[in-house]
Amino acid sequence: MSHYRPYSRCQPFLIPQDLQDWIPNDHLVRFVADLVGKLDLSGVKTSFRSASFVGRPTYHPQMMVALLIYSYIVGIASSRKIEQAVEDRLDFRWLAGGEHPDHDCIATFRKKNIEVFSKLFGQVLITCQQMGLVKLGRVVVDGTKLLANASRSRTYNSAQLQKLREMLEATARQLVEEGARVDQEEDAQHGVGIRGDELPKELANLESRLRKIDEAMNKLREAARDGAAEQAKATQDKAEHRAQEEAKTGKKHHGRKPKAKTAAQIEAELLASDKLRINLTDPDSHLMKDGATKAIIQGYNAQAAVDCELQIIVAAEVTEDANDKHQLVPMVTKVEENLGQLPEQACADCGYFGEPAVTDPALAGVELFVPPSRDCTQGEADANALKDLEPVVANFNGGSFVLVRREISVADRMRALLKTPEGRAAYSDRGKTVEPVFGQTKACRGLRGFLLRGIASVQGEWKLMCLGHNILKMYRASRPEQRPTSSPRRHCVSTSVQTQMNIA
Which letter does DSSP use for residue 406 in this model? Predict the structure, then answer.
């Protein structure tokens, strides 16, 4: 006698099944659908056809936006995998409402509306602030390298581009000569019957590649001009500073005098060197060193400012610069642009330190914790570290020593601040605030690179990734059993998705 329940995959249903019964009420996909239904989608482009086109109506923008956001939240970025998920997964099928957009439709919608996700990122961020998930007491700024949709092998310097151009031109000449020879043979055999103005497919492809090389060369020359102007100005400033020091002390400065070069000379040197490179597939991407793997990748530098309260991303940008030295001021001011106010404190690692950055008037009122070097946060805490910084310099003048007090440098002040108990406690939040965000994005969700190309498209895709992160934090904060309780300083929020997600 069998003690098992009847099992049959061919069992018919006498009453039609309701798709709503297959998805739990507290499922993440329902949260995403409710949230997208309250967003302003007025800027979404839905039709990519001509006005005279007659055919099947396009998909609803709310469904397409929700589908893309949910896909990035669960770590599915490929349009083909999204199409497959709509066919295979119940949560995707429920979200699509039984529709089945193909991968071409999904990819086109994402490409045409990628800038819209930047605006949606701001709307969701304001919602997080209204729900009490963002406090702006302390914000941590950091960057991570993400792969570009381009190969390293397609990156060339000026000399390599010139050599590649010569090879393509030689191939084009060979194709033209071969075509002329074949035409003569056919005319001699069959008579004149070919128009002769058709462009061979191989030659058309070569011409497009030559145009790409010309565009890349122009960008390299533009970058060389910008770099030459910057280097010339730096050399001039250094020479002027040296002259001022010599006039002030009355002594000749030791060391080699800065060699003055014209901008044209520096530009020629930069073009001849291997420092300037460009990728033909994605010219905006660059070779960068991944801090985690130490590997050289073709990618972008993705920046994020994260609020220490619940790890909400309050600012997200993408830069072509490999280092972070010039990113502190733009990222902190971007927080004010997104939420209407600056944070009380901002932390960043030593890669962001620079005297112009930490003394910028735009950050007035923000307490900064940015170490000048890696080792300055180590050592015993000293509550009087700032008071003890009164350096005295002994100068030998006229046969006697003269004690002169000199002004404390910005770097010394920052070192002393970070060795106080308050400074050490504030800077200790840096790693445990921003690193988990990058870990969740790259390791847990599997989003390690971009699918789109070009800095503008990549910017929108990074906002889409960060938008998914913030929605996931909102979802977890709205569920009492998943609220973070490990840290007493973190605020637990009790909220209802239906009543408190009001978009301003």
Answer: -
DSSP state of 136: -
Q: Which amino acid is at 36?
A: V
Taking the C-alpha atoms of residue 129 and residue 24, their distance in angstroms, rounded to an integer, is 27
Contacts of 412 (CB under 8 A, 6+ apart): 389, 391
pTM: 0.77
- The predicted-structure confidence for 241-280, as pLDDT tens digits, reads as follows 667 776 777 677 666 666 666 666 666 665 566 667 788 8
DSSP calls for 345-370: EEE--GGG--HHHHT-GGGTTPEEE-
Provide the residue count of the chain. 504
Buried/exposed code over 360-378 (b: 16+ C-beta within 10 A; e: otherwise): beebeebebbbbbeeebbe
> How far is residue 202 CA from its own chain's centroid?
37
Q: Are 86 and 96 in contact (CB under 8 A)?
A: yes
| Neighbouring residues of 131: CB distance < 8 A, sequence distance ≥ 6 | 474, 477, 493, 495, 500, 501
- The partner residues of 157 in beta bridges, in order of sequence, read 277
Q: Which domains does the chain have, with CATH numbers?
A: 20-45+58-113 (no CATH), 126-151+283-500 (3.90.350), 155-279 (no CATH)
Counting beta carbons within 10 angstroms of the beta carbon of residue 167, is it exposed (0 to 12), middle (13 to 18) or buried (19 or more)?
exposed
Structure tokens at 341: 């106010």
CA-to-CA separations, 238 to 265, 268, 287, in angstroms, rounded: 18, 22, 29
